[in-house]
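cache lookup: miss for this entity combination. No prior model stored, computing from scratch. Input as submitted by user K.M.:
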Amino acid sequence: MTHIPTRRRRRIFDLARPSRQHILGYILIAPAVIMVALIILWPLMLALDLSLQRVKIPRLGTARKPFTLDNYEWLFQSTEFWMACWITLKLVIVVSICCLVVGMATALLVNQRFRGRRLARLGMALPWAVPEIIAVVIFAWMFDSSFGLFGWVAVKLGIADHMIPWVSSPAAAFWAVAITMVWKGFPFVSIMVLAGLQSIPSDYYAAAKVDGAGALQRFRWITVPLLMPVLGVTMVLTTLWVFRDFSIIKVLTQGGPLRSTQTLSIMTYDQAFQYQNYGRAAAVGIVTLVICIIASVLMLGRRAKSIY
Amino acid sequence: MTRTPLQSLILYAVVILTLGLILFPVYWLLVTALSTTDKLYALPPKFWPVDPHWDIFARVWEAKPILQWLTNSLIAAVGSVALSMLVSVSAGYALSRYSMRGGAAMGMFVLTAKMLPATLLVIPLFSIFAKAGMIGSLWTLVIAHSTLIIPFATWMLKGYFDTIPKELEQAAMVDGCSPLGAMVRVVLPIATPGLAATALYAFVLSWADYAYARTFLVNAPDNWTANLGITTMQGEYVTYWNDISAAAIFVAIPIIVIYLFLERYLVGGLTAGAEK
């Protein structure tokens, strides 16, 4: 006689049952959702709320001040804000384009076959691993106005006739920040592009070669189109990084001189922790966030999904 | 593809020149640290250390509580990575395996979280921590760094779990494993490289933070992290660049060592989402 399997003991909360499995899903995701709600969403709501009150230093638990749009009105009327927008835009464009060019060039270079290629790749992307503050220490000394290397080189090359006061002249300070950021930021582009290059099948190049395409044509018609998705995501991430960066500018120039390197990010921070205007600071921050979201959506379009 | 000797020569020349340019600032940090003050404040600059004073490292180590700064950075990093991984691993797994209502919304949320400026979030966090009496404590960093890590770690891990075939768990479940058991005993061991990559990347993120440390810990010198400590060495009038460079080398070394030996994992995590 064959053995008839006994019915499995029914458990009240049997998560193995297919109809119940999605419950397990919710249970597994719950801690993350709670954490995110507690440490990101709630603070974000608090910030939004702060931006809608006239408040200097907020005390949690005290009564809310009346609703007002004052902070936003102040913001859109202040020249400081528009100047910060302009500087942020300039910095984003300059740094992103330089990162793209240098990153792309270095990636193409170390994608060649040669002895020691692995070592070259490691070296090429090393600045990515150097913490931002350390990068600033290095560049702050190279941009020193009396004994800095960059000033000395500029004089030697005949670009300037005296040492450039990098951190105290508005135009030079902008470039000091931009150069530091490019050095720190291009390896990310390089790493991403290299990964993208390696995923292009070599058959494509072989086929194009058979058809008589030159190196430039192969680059234009195979490499560039196939890299486009990776490049899109990379550029958005680079842009966002420049947009939100705090430590490089804060430590190198403190947003000065004469606010010439004060981006929206720095303005947000200084309004809060230097001038104790938390309401205004929150307003600047919220506007920055909205700009970031709009800019990324515009840049990515339908590919928005690929970023996460 | 074969090259003529001339082409090879040009290629090597270009590679070496580029590498030289890129790595020069790092070399310059070392030269600066090893130069004596009178050599440092002189033009033209010396491009290699003339009679290097190696004792600077011992001197700076003595003069500044660098070990303490590094320990604080380590505590903040390990704390926030542990806390984030705890919730992100299960969330990433759930997002990969179960189709849930709100999954797409979660995705959009992660996207937004990536755009969140730290300088905005630091404002409400400051008032929350002030209310809780936590200002000056390293716990503030554990929590603040988790806001950076959780969104990206969850999504990175979801990506890793997506590459592991579902059939493995189904087989385990047929053999009598519970769904949770299948995750813990079958999927997680296979995903170990992915978990390591995510944790490493998260560690680097936490180590690099300056904004939060500066805001929450500036009045608690005992809890200064390495990055914060370094910036306090920048004097208002005089900065001893050789001292600060030596300290900077101490701070950079852990991350650079991680990078040099575990680059494969770090870069793997970085580019995981890129090839889709």
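stored under new cache key. Residues 79-110 of chain A form the longest helix (32 residues).
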